[in-house]
Amino acid sequence: MFTKPFNSILKYILFTFLIAFSAYLTFSLTKDLYLSTPGKPHRIIAITQIAPHPSLDEIRRGIMDVLSAENLKAEKIKPVEILFENAQGNVATATQIATKFVGLKPLVMVPITTPSAQSIHSAAKGHDLPIVFAGISDPATAKLLPTEEAPFITGVSALGPIEQQAKLIVDVLVDTPLKTVGIIFNPGEANSVRMVELITQYLEAFKIKVIQATATNTKEVSTAVQSLVGKVSALYLPNDNTVISALETVLKTAQLHKIPVFSSDPESVSRGCLACIAPDQYAVGEQVGHLVIKLLKGDSIKSLPVEVAHENVFVLNLKVAKDLGIVIKPELIEKADSLIKPLA
Q1: pTM here?
Q2: Fold: same for 44-159+281-308 and 162-278+313-340
Q3: Residues 6+ away with beta carbon under 8 Å from 89
Q4: Which residue windows are transmembrane per the record (predicted)?
Q5: What's the pLDDT at 42?
Q6: For residue 284, what pLDDT is reported?
Q7: How far is CA 119 from CA 71, 191, 232, 335, in A?
Q8: CATH architecture group of domain 44-159+281-308
């Protein structure tokens, strides 16, 4: 005979098991119901991005505008359900999202940024699920180009005009003694590493020394920027998800020490960087959206090669220039596509 304490424990274990089994059963039935509902299992577009920041949000806005219900109707495409999940800067979360998306078997998966694209690409191996990436500077370095083993991938490469970015730093600071530029980046982001290699080559061609400072997460960005104070004449930020996510940290220190910051992310100029020439992020999103439209209309992904971003934008922040005491040549101001002016 069982004692009362033992019976209580047994009842508790049985109760816990029943609750867990019930939750599992409910989840399974809900998932099966969801995937068997007419119009849903094969009408999903799954979008994900690694972190929330304005540049990536602009890409997603461009995608969403192209895939609006009105546009789909005009293209005679059946309605789709668009799912979106943000990994909040966590690669482990990006992997979980990728696994979830693959399980849903969507029409198309659209990862924004290299970490999200790499997670999706890895999770989708062995599945014939189309992937259209966005916000990736160098898909070759990130190993995201189609191969015989994994041909179901395409997208838009958004590597900025690196040589022009180097020249922009020189042109903007033409009247400033410019000997050293500091670069902050995450060495774990393949795109960032490649951009740093390229910008270093071009800056060194102008006889400018480069000092690198790395940050593997947003918490390390503060230490990285502090390490460059007193050593550099300017800062350059590649299109690095870690650094751009902690942009306010960089700008706070830079403003305190009167260090101009150049970015490869157009949206960062309105937030306090001095200047940028880089792909228009919204236009990149539109370009990606049009690739998705082609897939929805029946084109094979194998017939859609990886594209290069069509539009670059040159943005100047004259307010920041005034605060730093930097005089920008009128001819350079005239070339800008967008100007952020001081308050009158």
Answers
A1: 0.82
A2: yes
A3: 50, 51, 217, 218, 241, 242, 245
A4: 12-30
A5: 61
A6: 97
A7: 29, 15, 36, 39
A8: 3-Layer(aba) Sandwich (3.40)
Domain range annotation of the chain: 44-159+281-308, 162-278+313-340
Per-residue tokens: 246:
């902690």
CA end-to-end span of the chain: 88
Query: At the top level of CATH, which class does the domain 162-278+313-340 belong to?
Result: alpha beta
244 within 8 A of 265, measured Cβ to Cβ: yes
Token representation of residue 171: 């042109």
Q: Read off the tokens for 74.
A: 């005009």
Low-confidence residues in the chain, pLDDT < 70: 1-42, 344
CA distance 144 to 120: 10
The three state secondary structure string of the chain is CCCHHHHHHHHHHHHHHHHHHHHHHHHHHHHHHHHHCCCCCCCEEEEEECCCCHHHHHHHHHHHHHCCHHHHHHCCCCCCEEEEEECCCCHHHHHHHHHHHHHHCCCEEEEECHHHHHHHHHHCCCCCCCEEEEEECCCCCCCCCCCCCCCCEEEEECCCCHHHHHHHHHHHCCCCCCCEEEEEECCCCHHHHHHHHHHHHHHHHCCCEEEEEECCCHHHHHHHHHCCCCCCCEEEECCCHHHHHCHHHHHHHHHHCCCCEEECCCHHHHCCCCEEEEECHHHHHHHHHHHHHHHHCCCCHHHCCCEECCCEEEEEEHHHHHHHCCCCCHHHHHHCCEEECCCC
